[in-house]
Structure formats: C-alpha cells, structure tokens
Design goal:
There is one protein chain. Strand 4 and strand 5 form a beta hairpin. It is globular and about 45 Å long. By secondary structure, the protein is of the alpha/beta class. It starts with 11 loop residues before the first strand and ends in a 14-residue tail after the last helix. The protein is built from ten helices and seven strands. The strands form two sheets. It has a five-stranded mixed β-sheet, with helices on one face. It has a two-stranded antiparallel ribbon with strand order 4-5. It folds into two domains: about 230 residues, no CATH class; about 35 residues, no CATH class. Helix 3 runs parallel beside helix 5, helix 5 packs across helix 7 and helix 8 packs antiparallel against helix 10.
C-alpha cells in the first residue's frame, strides 16, 4: 500500500496509555483502616490491595485534572498508517455521498490500549476493533494488528487497512439507516433470527470495505500488487467457522454473528470488484 502518500485524517483521538476509568468501590476512612489491618495480617502490599478493591485510577495531568486524549494525526508509524487509511475512507465516502446529494459526516478513530470507555459502554481490547453508533467513533487497539499477523496469519498493510475500512463500513450503515432497521428487527425476532441479521450486517460492512478499496485504488492509486489478496486472507481468517474451530473444534452456524470465512471473502471481493454500494445489499441476497 502506498499509504505514506495519502492525506492523514485529523479525526483521530489518541487515548493510548491513558489508563481506564475508575470503576471500583469507594472506600471510607474506616474501610481504609480495615484494609490496612488485612494487609498487616496477610503480609500483602497495602497499595496493591487498595488498587484491587478500588480499581485503576484515572490518568491525570500535571494539574490534577483528568488527562485528555491527543487529537490529530499521531507521531508513531502505526498511528500514522491508521490516520492515512481513515483519511482515504473520508475521501472515498465523502465523494460517494456527495454524488448522491448527501454530506458525509466522518467518524472519529479512537486509538486505545487494553480497554476503553465509549458511549456504548466499557470495553476490553479482547473484543477487537469495534464501531459505536452512539458516538460515531471507531475504536481500535493497535495491538490487534500484531494479533492479526501472528494469530490469524494475515499480515500486511492492506489486511490492517481492511480492519479499519470494515468498521468505517458500519459507520456508513449507520448513516444510511441500515443499522437502526436491523436493530429493530432483531428485537422483534428470536436469538437465531437476530444472529442471522447480524451476519448480513457484518457481510455488508465487508462489502463496503471492498467498495472503499476499489475506489481508493482507482482514484488515489493507493493499492499495490498483492494488496487485495492480503485483505481477502484477513477476511477468511476471521470467519466465525474458523474462530469456532480454533476455540472449540466444531462450528455452530446458528450462533454465527459475522459469517463464515467463505462468506466474508465473497462479499469483500464483491465490493472490491464492483466498487458500487448498490451491489452490497446482503439483505436482499438469497445465498450469502
């Protein structure tokens, strides 16, 4: 990928190293004395006991105020890469929306480490990258890129870019009203029906990521030979069937929420080949 030549988005909020919000139990003076007594009797470090009970403290600045996230393009390479990919999605989707007579309000990319508080709740990095429709932000722990390489065997810049583009695809769905319709339908049906709708939503986000790749490759000359294959490898590595086999040795299709490897590869490739949003209607497709 020729990402170094791309404009880096300023819609980046860097919360890495800030620490999580305080979520523990507030202790009174008597509670602290009791804790110190327990530490004396057990030989435990009282500071460690206090942290275990009270939870992690909020990162603070030199004046004692809560530390605020840095905004704008980061200074490290992975952060700059992510800002460049986000900038490319802004250009592509801004053009597509403009052609349709609409404005494209771009999402914010939040970089974090370990855990993060979003408008959708407190989330651990273990869940992977995600999009929160409540605050229109994409959340990404950059350590997921290393996991994508080592654990899932999907290395390369475009594999990483696909991850960001997929989450931006959810933002596009949110703007188009697709996400709201799916959530309403999920509430009316069974859990199995809800899972099936989730699969179609995720596959559409894959297809929309492919639309971005197609457009960025043609207009900004972003892609190099082999890039598309990296994206397809990544999509195939994180299918529900692959993840379930890895975790439990068998698959349960009724519980899928993202689709099989074959499905994800198919819809990402479809978007890559067509470059048209209208070709990403997974909800009208009989066979996924």
């Amino acid at each position: 990928m020729r990402w170094q030549d791309q404009r880096q988005s300023d819609n980046v909020e860097d919360r890495r190293g800030m620490g999580g919000p305080r979520r523990g139990i507030a202790l009174s003076g008597g509670g602290i004395l009791l804790l110190l007594a327990v530490a004396f009797l057990t030989g435990e470090n009282p500071i460690q006991l206090l942290e275990a009970v009270s939870g992690p403290s909020v990162s603070v600045g030199p004046g004692g105020e809560s530390e605020s996230a840095q905004t704008g393009a980061p200074s490290d390479q992975l952060g700059q890469f992510s800002a460049a990919v986000l900038g490319s999605t802004e250009d592509v989707w801004g053009s597509i929306f403009s052609d349709g007579g609409r404005r494209y309000p771009a999402p914010t990319l939040v970089l974090f480490s370990d855990s993060v508080e979003s408008a959708c709740g407190f989330t651990s990095a273990a869940v992977g990258p995600f999009y929160c429709p409540v605050d229109s932000k994409v959340y990404l722990d950059l350590s997921f890129f290393a996991e994508l390489d080592r654990k899932f065997g999907a290395p390369g810049d475009f594999a990483r870019a696909y991850v960001i583009a997929h989450e931006v695809g959810h933002h596009v769905q949110n703007l188009l009203g697709v996400s709201d319709k799916v959530r309403a339908a999920q509430q009316r049906g069974s859990q199995e029906d809800a899972n099936a709708l989730s699969v179609r939503l995720e596959l559409q986000a894959d297809c929309l990521a492919g639309v971005w790749a197609n457009q960025a490759g043609r207009t900004a000359k972003l892609l190099e030979p082999g890039d598309l294959e990296q994206g397809l490898t990544a999509a195939g590595a994180i299918g529900d069937d692959q993840l379930q086999r890895r975790a439990q040795g068998y698959t349960v299709p009724e519980s899928w929420t993202h689709g099989s490897s074959a499905m994800r590869v198919h819809w990402l490739r479809r978007g890559m080949q067509s470059g048209r949003v209208e070709d990403c209607d997974t909800f009208a497709a009989e066979d996924l």
